[in-house]
Fold this sequence. Notes:
Elements: H1 8-15, H2 41-50, H3 58-68, H4 87-99, H5 106-117, H6 143-153, H7 163-178, H8 191-194, H9 205-212, H10 216-219, H11 222-232, E1 235-236, E2 239-240, H12 262-274
Antiparallel strand pairs: 1-2
Amino acid sequence: MAVEKQYLSDVEAILSHRHDNGADLWATADKRLLKGSPFSTFDSVLYLLELGMSPDEPVLKDAADLIFSTWQKDGRFKIYPKGSIYPCQTALAANVLCHMGFAYDSRMEKTFQHLFDTQYSDGGWRCNKFSFGHGPETEHSNPMPTLNALNAFRFSGYFEREPLLDKAVDFLLEHWRIRKPMGPCHYGMGTLFMQVEYPFRNYNLFQYVYVLSFYSRARKDGRFLEALEALKLKTADGQIIVERVVPELGKLSFCKKGKPSRLATKRYVEILENLKK
């Protein structure tokens, strides 16, 4: 798939930030791949893929090499030079690489096994980092890393075959009932969650429904169907209207705040197609 002419200026704008953090490919010299949001390495790769750029383009092939250079033999990704390696970082790296076509790479197999080995008792993934203290809510997994992990696994051979993924789906569906902040990082379902954010970056209704729509266990669940109905109420004439976007991305044509987004609507149509499976 090639980038359509109308989005070439968006691609150019994203590429113009590739040295912002001191090195190439939106990274720092010491390979901090989450530095500089919303134009981090991970963010920018996903934007370019969303705009239709082929993973075979040199810039994305180089970015894949950069991400894999942080891969560890136990399957984790060390995306910061110092400090602990958290499950959320590995889940995010896995998600990006799977979107780039590496789900069946031997290194990713090791990463998938690591994720299964570190899955928490409630079915999700969590980090032992307690920025908000140790309240009872922190005994749950973190919803966003769990969503990223499921987004990665849907490209893998484990998709729709591994019961452990059903547990992760159930965990996220239960959050629709709980709504309150969960996990050590306090992911909730409040006002911001219910706003349609695009492109996919944070834990929000649109991305939640999109990822879960690929899983048959979710599609027949009443909690998912309620979330889907809430998303449908956000559409206008069958189109997704972007309600929230970070200001730095607001100038790009594919995600104008308050406007219908053709590419976001393609993701919405994908949800509707998944319901027919």
